[in-house]
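Field reference: "sequence" (input) and "structure" (output). Example, GNAT family N-acetyltransferase:
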Amino acid sequence: MIADPEIARAFESTWPAAEYAEAGGFRVGRGLGAGGRVSSARVLAPDWQAAAIPRIEAIQRGWDERPMFRVTDADTALQEALRAQGYRPGTPTAIMAADCAALAAEPAPPLAAFAIWPPLAIQRDIWAAGGIPASRQAVMERVAQPRTAILGRVQDRAAGAAFVARDGRVAMIHGIEVVPALRRQGVAGWLLRKAAEWAAAEGATRLALAVRRDNAHARALYQRLGFADLGGYGYWTRD
């Protein structure tokens, strides 16, 4: 579990699985092809049981999904339990957060970013081209909390897309994608600032996100914008 309870709740509620099952102190999501975030098992209770790991595997295989656990960097006990059963770690990911008011204090240039719901076809095309297909876009439709999509523009062209949703005082931004030919022109920053502006208007005080630790360029951008690293997690899998 993420140490910050507000971010932990928003992390799950703003990117939900299609359905859930529970076993031995774990909750496992059914992702329907929408990626590891919604297709993994995570600790639900501190008294989780290593004996439940095979049961979770059976649930996932019954859903035609690969056995996978999402494990925080600090949970060495679970890491060892999974390693003993043939699991291996991958995709180290950081969770970062910034102050909404500070981000929104420098607004995007006029006509550079818009909050739009439902997403426009061009936003869906940008996501699909960036590796966020219809199965992942379907996650956005399941969110019950306040939500919106952000459209970024540059050179009078649609240049980027993102999805943001709020749970309590935390908003999470997901699916940040910029058209490859239009990168390095500030679009990602405008998406983030517009998301923070929308989130603040909705009552959020922090904007959070998850980013792969090997994505050095994105992490450097987030740090320049005031995002701080709050810890992280990885995906443990087996064949």
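Residues 5-94 form one domain.
The first strand starts at residue 19 and ends at 23.
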